[in-house]
Design brief:
2 domains; single chain; six-stranded mixed beta sheet; globular; Cytochrome Bc1 Complex, Chain A, domain 1; 12 strands
């Protein structure tokens, strides 16, 4: 496309005429007075953003199911997501992996009237994507397709939800895949860290730590999957988020048809259980022959509904959550060069209080020294004060990033449906409307209060994964020992058998066998 550019001669004549006119010279002079001489002198209107209101998207279907619907006519596409109450906590003892397998095969194991291969072929012809899964605290079934094929897509979705086939060969294939993945459970130090961190946080008996075993997976039958489906895939456990090229009233009617005359009656899913135990302070080391030492520093957290949540979020951003502007990253990486990345994390709980912590990777022989620095930064922030610049940077980050959560209609209805699912819509329907104001209200005193409440290095639990011989033989320049960081409380945890998830016995040298 050609741009309309004035010829130089015309542009010169225009400027000359403008300067010749008294009002023109005055206008240019006034404009020059309003333009600062330096970029840092520029000023802008205060940022303000009004998030979408849930009531504009919320609809209650005839079945009682709540749906969030967003029209978007920019592209001829429709995205539908069904959220199912329940999760892996529904697995009975000895049936670990049942929810995960049922969720995976719901959309991939065929239906009563379609073999899995026929279903896959038809979806491919429609250029449609159909997926399903069960995670820790919810299940999901999602459909994405062209708007012109919506009726057929919803008919297929109805089949999947009400008459899944759980085809025998697909079940066998999935079980083989899970068993193959088990062999690799101890290959990655990151996977070991993530797994052992959960054991330390919640205890061996909590549902998050009831992993699939060889025995539990091999024992799964098609009848188990059918029973799980009929018990939990029921409209009373559903929420819907849909966005795309449709009219809201018409889409609501189509969803009513999708859920009408449900052919069986399931049960209402129970709430997510709360963990029965708490962390024990000290250092736990898992021996893994890798070059880097992985360190997680864990402390109790809070619920996201806690009155101190916003102050705690700002505090965490200053300490280690704000990337290169945070204290931990600056000291551990920029000043000492001990890690590529080091951060703190505030993970507020939805169903129960979450955790606060920090994590990094460092050379094994400097890992304890880096951990000492992180703990010292926690103490400094707890006992001192945040600066004006830190407060402004952290608060602006939260406020400026808020619009990203609502970037697309799919994101909007997905977030609002999550608010409904987790109960925050019922308890605080104006949460996002008040979000910016709540962040702006955070003061230094509030940050200090949150720091004094959460930052207790003396009570921390440290998980260290790496080569034991190096981790316990610190660099002479920084002779810090992990036991010194936790008042001498130091234990070793063996690797777990990948097929039973039971701890393997330690040899005399301290390695698992």
């Amino acid at each position: 496309m050609k741009k309309n550019i004035l010829p130089p001669a015309v542009l010169v004549a225009f400027l000359a005429a403008l300067l010749a006119a008294p009002h023109g010279r005055a206008a240019l002079a006034a404009g020059a007075d309003t333009i600062p001489s330096k970029p840092d002198q520029l000023s802008f209107k205060p940022f303000s953003y009004n998030p979408p209101a849930a009531k504009e998207y919320r609809a209650v279907l005839k079945s009682g199911v709540v749906a969030y619907l967003a029209e978007n006519h920019e592209l001829p596409l429709v995205n539908v997501q069904i959220i199912l109450r329940g999760g892996t906590y529904l697995n009975a003892a000895g049936k670990e992996g049942l929810a995960e397998t049922a969720g995976y095969l719901l959309a991939r194991g065929g239906t009563k009237n379609r073999k899995a291969e026929d279903l896959e072929e038809r979806l491919a012809f429609l250029a449609a994507q159909l997926n399903s899964a069960y995670g820790e605290d919810r299940g999901t079934v999602s459909l994405n397709l062209l708007a012109k094929d919506l009726d057929e897509g919803l008919a297929i979705l109805r089949e999947v939800l009400t008459e899944p086939r759980f085809q025998d060969d697909k079940l066998k294939l999935r079980k083989d895949q899970i068993l193959a993945d088990m062999k690799q459970r101890n290959d990655s130090s990151a996977d070991i860290e993530r797994r052992e961190r959960s054991f330390l946080l919640y205890g061996d008996s909590y549902y998050l730590n009831r992993f699939e075993t060889k025995a539990s997976v091999e024992g799964l039958t098609r009848e188990d999957l059918v029973a799980f489906h009929r018990k939990w895939v029921d409209p009373r456990n559903m929420l819907i988020a849909a966005a795309g090229d449709f009219k809201k009233a018409e889409m609501a009617a189509k969803l009513d048809k999708l859920l009408a005359n449900w052919p069986f009656r399931g049960e209402a899913a129970p709430p997510v259980p709360k963990p029965p135990s708490t962390m024990t302070p000290g250092t736990v080391l898992v021996d893994k022959d890798v070059n880097q030492g992985r360190v997680s520093i864990m402390l109790p957290g809070l619920l996201r509904t806690d009155p101190d949540f916003f102050a705690a979020a700002v505090m965490n951003d200053i300490l280690g959550g704000g990337g290169f502007t945070s204290r931990i990253m600056t000291h551990v990486r920029s000043d000492e060069g001990l890690a590529y990345s080091a951060s703190s994390q505030l993970q507020p709980g939805v169903w129960y209080p979450g955790r606060f912590g920090a994590a990094f990777q460092s050379k094994a022989r400097t890992a304890a020294y880096a951990a000492q620095i992180v703990l010292e930064e926690m103490t400094k922030l707890r006992d001192g004060d945040a600066t004006d610049e830190e407060m402004e940077t952290a608060k602006r980050a939260f406020i400026d990033q808020l619009p990203r959560r609502f970037s697309t209609p799919v994101q909007v209805v997905g977030l609002l449906a999550d608010e409904e699912y987790t109960g925050r819509y019922a308890s605080d329907p104006l949460y996002y409307a008040k979000y910016q104001a709540n962040v702006e209200k955070v003061t230094k005193a509030g940050v200090k209060r949150a720091a004094q409440r959460l930052l207790k290095p003396e009570s921390a639990t440290l998980l260290v994964v790496g080569k034991k011989a190096d981790l316990l033989n610190p660099d002479p320049k920084h002779p810090v020992k992990f036991a010194d960081l936790t008042n001498g409380k130091f234990t070793e945890a063996p690797l777990r058998d990948p097929f039973t998830m039971k701890p393997m016995a330690l040899t005399a040298a301290g390695t698992a066998k």
